[in-house]
Structures are given as C-alpha cells and as structure tokens.
Amino acid sequence: MRKPMVAGNWKLHKTIPEALELVEGLKKDVGDKQDVDIVVAPVFTALNAVAKAVKGSNIAIAAQNCYFENSGAFTGEVSPALLKDAGCSRVILGHSERRQIFGENDDLINRKIKAVLAEGLDVIFCIGETLEERDSEQTMEVLRRQVVEGLKGVAAEDMQKVVIAYEPVWAIGTGKTASGDQAQEAHSFVRGMVSGIFNPDIAAQTRILYGGSVKPDNVDELMAQDDIDGTLVGGASLKVADFARIVRFEKI
Asked: Per UniProt, where does substrate bind (predicted)?
C-alpha cells in the first residue's frame, strides 16, 4: 500500500506572519491525520519559521526549488544543504512554472534531483505536458522524455525518496482539470516508465501525485483512481478549509 501524500505548493504567497497563521490553522484542522503524509512548501523566507512551527507535528516542510551546488559563487541561489539547515525534508523540482517561465530543462532538473538526494532530502519531481503538446498528441512522448532524463543516474535505492507529480500544464491556474480517466492514463503510463527504468517493485512503491487545479470538489474523483497516490495542490493550499478538505479526501 502506498501512503497518500497531499502537498501544498504556496508559490509566491504569504509573508512570514501569514505563513505561520496558515500552518497553525492546518495543525488545528488536520493535526490528527496520520494516514496521509502532509507537506507544505512556503516561500524561502518563511521556511525556517514554518519549520519551527510544525516541529513535532504531522506536517513536513518542502522547498519550492533549489540549485545543484551546495556552495559557491551562485548569486541568488539556495542549496540543498541550506534548505536542510532551514528545516526542509524535501524539495519540489521540475515544476512547470520553473520549466515554462524560467527555462529549466531536463538536464538541469536531473542535476538538481541528484544533488537533493545526495544531501539526504526527498524529492517531489514534477512532470507534465502543455496544452499544445496534448493537442498534438505528444503527451506520452513528453512524459517519457521528462521521466527518463529527469531520473537519469538516480540509483534504484534512492527511488524510495522520490515522489513524482504529474501536473498537466494546461490545467494549472486555468480552472481546467484533467478528468479522472485522463489523469489515471498518465499516471499509469508514468508508473510503467518507472518499472521499465528500474523494476516493477520500485514502480509499485513509487508514489505519483496529481497536480493541476486540485480543489475540494474534484479531489475525491482523482483519489479514486488506482495510480493516483495523492495531490500537489496550488491555490487551494492557501486556505485552511480548502487544503484540509483535500487532506481529508474521500474515495468515491
């Protein structure tokens, strides 16, 4: 059995006081949930404060990005070692906004994945196709490339520290959502890719999250799919009630 994970990507939102207010609300609302791994990813400036606030709770802290070097002349970057020092246990890498807005390619993301794993942190590895790629029937080709290139050189034993998040770019911030069947098809394909790269046992153990306009009103249908093991939540993670409802999903 793969334990579900619900991760909230706060993106560029929340001052430190606002972040603390949000996480305190989550602790009160879902602090009793032990059957779901709960993760929040604040902005860099709030990481340490939020990490201290959730210490001893069932909420883990992720960073939204990092660089692949631990130190050096890299102005404006944050390293895996610094994130670990700030209280993070995992890092989101390859998010569609990093790919689309900031031009991160598969090779760069792969270097980041290996650097994060080398530091002993877990990875939430994001993949997904654009609307143009879906409309031109390139979805599986894109996912194949992203998975193969992103996991290149990752040791089989390190896959226990990797969670994959399928996030169709066309469904992020647009109000559109992949149907349960569309999401399941992609998740099943990705699991098959992991099986081919590593082995069926590792594929069976790897958690694959869905990310793409996850809301309280669609999480139950998504989580009913065989190969969807949780969600990577954007906007709905900024409100206690919405995120708590997603954490308390009910399989239909």
From this structure: 9-11, 173, 213, 234-235
Q: Where are the alpha helices (DSSP H) in 151-238?
A: 180-197, 200-205, 219-223
Q: Is CATH 3.40.190.10 the right assignment for the domain spanning 59-232? A: no
DSSP one-letter code for 116: H
Per the annotation, does 150 bind a ligand? no
Q: 129 with 143: CB under 8 angstroms?
A: yes
95 has catalytic annotation: yes
Residue type, 154: V
Cβ contact 203:191 at 8 Å? yes
| Rounded-to-integer distance, Cα 199 and Cα 203, Å | 6
| Residue 173 assigned ligand-binding role | yes
Encoded tokens for 227? 């190969």
| Radius of gyration of the CA atoms of the chain, in A | 17
Q: Kindly write down the DSSP assignment for every residue of 117-133, as one continuous string.
A: HHTT-EEEEEE---HHH
Phi, psi of 178, rounded to the nearest 5 degrees: -65, 140
Say which amino acid occupies 197.
Answer: I
Q: Residues 6 or more apart from 181 whose CB is under 8 A from it?
A: none
pTM: 0.96
pLDDT tens-digit readout, 33-78: 999 999 999 999 999 999 999 999 999 999 999 999 999 999 999 9
* DSSP SS3 for 232: strand
d(CA 52, CA 86): 9
